[in-house]
From TrEMBL:
UniProt: Ca(2+) 1 binding residues: 162
GO biological process: collagen catabolic process; extracellular matrix organization; proteolysis
UniProt-listed SMART domains: ZnMc
Residue ranges of domain Peptidase metallopeptidase in the record: 143-296
Stated family: Belongs to the peptidase M10A family. Matrix metalloproteinases (MMPs) subfamily.
Protein name: Metalloendoprotein 1
Residues involved in Zn(2+) 1 binding: 202, 218, 228
An annotated GO cellular component: extracellular matrix
Binding site for Ca(2+) 3: 213
One Pfam family hit: PG_binding_1
Cofactor(s) listed: Ca(2+); Zn(2+)
Entry keyword set: Calcium, Hydrolase, Metal-binding, Metalloprotease, Protease, Zinc
PANTHER family the UniProt entry points to: MATRIX METALLOPROTEINASE (PTHR10201), METALLOENDOPROTEINASE 2-MMP-LIKE (PTHR10201:SF213)
Amino acid sequence: MLGRSSRYDSREGLKASARPPELHAYSLVVLALDDVGSADGEVLGPRVPSGELRRGDKAELVHKLKKHLIYLGYLGTDNLGIENNFDRHLKHAIEKYQEFYGLNVTGIVDMNTITSLRKPRCGFPDFLNPQAHSKSLYSFYPGNPKWTKTQLRYYIVPTTPDPCIPPIEEALYEWQRVTPFRFPIAGNSFPDIKFSFQCGQHGECAEAFYPESRSIAHASPPPDGKIHFNAYMRWSTAGDADAFDIKTTAMHDIGHALGLMHSAVEDSIMFSQLAPGVTRNIHADDIEGIRVLYEF
């Protein structure tokens, strides 16, 4: 069972029990696109001799790639076309993806692009409108939802493992240090930001949490403020190479809970891709984004 008395070990991961449904949230997921290709071409290679996909190719995995790029906001649903054909719309979507992530812009799904697609990342799209695909730094949710107060009461549910509590509170402090927000502790009655570890399908969340799941956490924008961590994942408080850093993940999702979407700045806390062992701090781009959003 996952509880305050549960043993926490980044090598073993966290054990979990079922949790009640929660409201809508977006997921921070690990996108290992094995059906799209692997970093060494083992999956892509047998289908395409060059180990690459380009305009004019036909393959079953093209449909999976299109669906994935639609989800990330690089391709419109009306541009699906013939599902297994690598058409001009997909080429353009790949070019947009490559531009956003600082890759060589070719429109070809090469090994560098595949490697990028396979990196752990946030499940929230890079763009909510496929037409708005210019490479930007910080960004906001449509309609710029934000809090109308700077005192945001937080609650960490009692089933949270004890070793995870200080890093979560440190993550709140990091945002408090660079903004006018203050985060007093709240009880369970209507906190503004609520942290919990979850497993299985919960509410309307985009991704369920299972032992084999690649989703690590998710958060919802203002005024919902729910932040969920996957109880089955391996978590670390010290940047272990095979575990996700709890403080870094919490800072990212607090950013979402405050109203920030993704940044194209790779060192920013709101950069969409995350890998085990990676630790980040709040970046000047994150600070500028929150100040612009709230006019601090």
